[in-house]
């Protein structure tokens, strides 16, 4: 009997539109161009690139769309007769002051926005999910952030693990995604990227593709 090979990994990705201080969000372009980039580059047979969604940089504005695409992916998985393997959500956000990539290990149940989001909301020390309790509550990804970071660094990317995704919309979305992932047996990861002025678009696209391929190969 031959080996069945690695199981299928379906990866869904999100990015964000512009927001205060960032007129052009690199993650909007990354997510919009990812499918065509992966087609040209080629990817492992067991890697399926699912939905590519650009979210509003707004707490509730982003979460409404986020839950729709999360639930759609779950419904699609359940409607298929054959097993589809692992489902992973990768969320990309920009850190305009960063000089390297960061894989975020956790999100905190706290919304404290340093500036109003794109819908004008500026919460301060508000729980993201009140039923989860305190604003100090954290949720962690089940993906191996340290191992992924080490492998990506060996490939040549300047990337670090992080335990602080901030308290703005990135953390807000990540917390909701991690909560949803735990409830539905899927995985979620947030990745902060620099501006294209710091690390150019081509390098960032290759970084994202390498991360997706690594997730497929390590499954």
Automatic annotation (TrEMBL):
Pfam families: Peptidase_C15. GO terms for molecular function: pyroglutamyl-peptidase activity. Coiled coil: none annotated. GO terms for cellular component: cytosol. InterPro entries: Peptidase_C15 (IPR000816), Peptidase_C15-like (IPR016125), Peptidase_C15-like_sf (IPR036440). Signal peptide: none annotated. One of its GO terms (biological process) is proteolysis. The keyword Ribonucleoprotein does not apply. Keywords: Cytoplasm, Hydrolase, Protease, Thiol protease. SUPFAM superfamilies: Pyrrolidone carboxyl peptidase (pyroglutamate aminopeptidase). Belongs to the peptidase C15 family. This is Pyrrolidone-carboxylate peptidase. It comes from Digitaria exilis.
